[in-house]
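Lay summary

Proteins are chains of building blocks that fold into shapes. Our project writes down both the chain and a compact code for its shape. Here are two examples, one after the other.
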Amino acid sequence: MNRVILVDAKGMAVENSVVNKLQRLIQESGAADDLSEGMRVAIKVNTSEAGYEYGLRPVFIRAVTDVARDASKTRPTICDGLRLVDYWQKANANNFLNLAREKGYSNDTLGGNFVVIGGFSGDEGELYSCELPDSELGGVEVGTAVCRSDALWVLSHVTLHPLFGLSAALLNGGFDCLVARAKSRVLRGVDPYPFNGQRPPLEKLRAFQRRALESHLGVRAAMDGRIFYVNYLWDVTPQPEYFPFSGEPVTGNLGFLASRDPVALDAATFDLIRESHSFAKTGVDSVREIGEVDFAKVLKDAETMGVGCAGGALRRLS
């Protein structure tokens, strides 16, 4: 059974700050034990669009990159991908990096080399098999910042997602690691920005979800399984970070979780959100009412496809 470790957001103090909690989480998980001197570590993050106001503070990422750097004796590569729709004329690489810097994401604040995941064009990648006999995609192009590294740490700012249910380890460690044209192929026929409330037909929605899970297998193949995941349950908004606006968080800050199994991690994350008092009192017992997606089915699909196992043992740290 795969282990999920949770450190909650309680008992904050000078000696028990967010940075202390995150670094303890990484140390207790043993993630750094897989790293050795000279290894190239890619750290996938979520940078927010202009207009989205709840992005993670850079120090929340720096706390983790410092651990990776100390273990590998090498500055990690910190990366995210270009936006698919250019709402603010900031989607090309220059403007994307400038916007990220405006949000406080720079080499100095993050403690590594901040780059576009698919190179300066956004489409620099290598093709990897999805490793399924009945795969619809066959293979996916994984961004060079990821596939040319020796290990991948996926740091996910958890939010709800209108198409996938939850934006967390499964989506960020798969679909979000692809080059732009590969993302378009996974999205085929589905608008990632359903601002008008018109959702795609259920058949198309489920097809997108399966393709997104296939892409996760492609990323795993690219990294030969050397992937570690951290979910930040902090400012969990109804919209993902690539939206040009953000509603208020749907729950209080619940802490941080880590695992080597993205399915176990997202399942534990989903349960914590649903069980939280502030979320439950709204009368919403799943993300379906907000995102109109049954995330439990997505988790089941992920298990069936061999992405991971939802039955991970949860270990709590204070």
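And here is the second example, written the same way.
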Amino acid sequence: MRARTRILTLKSACIASTLAVGACDWAAAELVPLPDRLTLPVFTAEVSDDTAANLQVAVSATDRAGRSPGQPGFAGASRNGECRVYIDNVTPVSSDELYDRAFLHLDRVVRRSGGVEALLAEPDNIPVAHIWGDVNAPWRCIAGTIYNVQAAGYPTVGFISTPDEDDSFAFSAIATHAVYIDMPVAIALDARPQVDPVTNMIMVTARNEILWNGAPVNQNTLRANLRNSQTSALEPELHLKPESEASYDLTVKVLSIIVKSNVARFGFVGNERHRSFGKDESGVDPTARGS
């Protein structure tokens, strides 16, 4: 069974929206090699149940010269690069295409399961959107991916990592570890004050800082603050607001700490800013090695 954190409720009825469209021919996602030079974050989490029913999405960015993964000379994702998102870890998609194909994929799973009620009766069979994010990709690329798969109806996202005992990750179609998050209702940017008596705000900056209600903290202090926040009679909501160019590597480690702290209410702030992104039009196979 997947280990998940319980956060701001996203109604299960969101899955029912997939029944509003006709039957589709979109096949279940297959496990395939990851784009060349994709480096995953390293930390300990639950073992991933990477089944064919889950949606596989790889997220990277162009390098400093504007080359996409798979193009000759690609030198690795740049924080300032354009987002490059691949469904099934291979096919480049724009934000609109990601939404459409994720929606159709979920529709196929729901219908194969016998409908929404049948699927909800077996919650472990509800598909997960697995995000394979490059550690060097900017957070805005991850945020836009999260926004679109959440809008398509996926109630859970798994952020894929490698075991912390093995820093040398060999490219593989098998997910080794993941942080699973039941997606909260999106919180609009600046919808509430940054510091509120019943809200704690965590920010991850482009300078690799973690801020707790505006004050710099390290990961150990973050853990302590999360523990202390749960001793209140009314546990504050926890909001996470990474800067656009924040490191995905650090952000997903912060997510891991949040999940392990078992906070009751948590939400992302500002993901809607990054909902739109383009795709690689080069036609290259992103799994091909650059020269």
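What can we say about the second shape? Helices lie at 95-112, 116-121, 139-151, 219-229, 248-261.
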